[in-house]
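Can anyone check this?
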Amino acid sequence: MSRRLYVLGGVLVAIAALATVILFEVLGTVFFALTVAYLLVPLHRRLQNRGYSRLASTVVVTTLALSGVLALFGPVAYLLVIRISDVSALLSTLPEAITVEAAGFTYELVVADLLAIVIQELSAVGRAIAASLPVLAIKLALFVLLVFSLLQNQRDIRTATIAVVPPDYRDIAQALHTRATETLFALYVLQAATALATFLLAVPVFVLFGYSSPIVLATVAGILQFVPVAGPSLLILALVGGNLFVGDLAGAILIGIVGGTLIVALPDTVIRPRLASKTADISSSLYFIGFVGGLLSLGALGIIVGPLVVALLVEAASLVAAEFESEPPAGPPVSASTETGGDQSTTGAIEDSGSTTESSTHD
């Protein structure tokens, strides 16, 4: 590879760093569009292989990406902007104090102040979202434009990216590419499919139990699927606790069994196994660390960045381990004198053999 390509690669990295600083306000939108387009490239190629033109394939896949974003963030906006009063009313029905009995002692935990803070924060978030709707509309348009451009020019982008990587290291780039694709599939497709299934299962359950806002509760259950480890079990536990606090033991047992089976367990036992074969092999504990760490460090963007970085770290560690295992074991050192002596002995033996043969011939 010529030195010119390395220089151009350095220029590309420098300009990308400068663009990151200047475009910091829309960096989250740009990163989100990059990851979505990166994940949808195989679908774009599949449509082209079936006879669709590149433009038609790009339009179809971009429309699918836009629909997915609206389906993903639409329920959140619906709860925090349109139905915020219902959410606040639902939280207000929770008891103001919790009585706990243990070891013969009775403790009373006052949660009224905590509930007031939660309702206040949710209302503030709802007002902030409503006030920033014009900005969100601009960012949504930017997202659509970026996804369309990236898909339309993905061949040129891939060629330019691969050209910067030295040939001897392209297998490493391919391994990281595969891990990133599997992780993004798990974060977007697997979680979204599981959340949708949770919502569809939760609606009839909450209607059957006579809750006043079944759509709101079902939406919360679907959103909680994006929370690792705990998921919608947090909502079921809250509902069980609410029934216990009002003295409805039978209702608490029923919602615990039915909700725990249909809302918590069924999506994880039916939807996830069918899609999990295409996802990255990363433990739930590491995923949880990436989720929480990314969320605390980068906000909402960290929900994607955190697990992705952890997955790439795991892949890099496995590549290093494989590299060490593939190294041949070092043999015992051979001194130059021994090697020279061996050569001389061999030479002498050959000469002696030649002399013997010559003598036999003369005889």
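Reply from J.R.: I decoded it. The chain has a mean pLDDT of 76.
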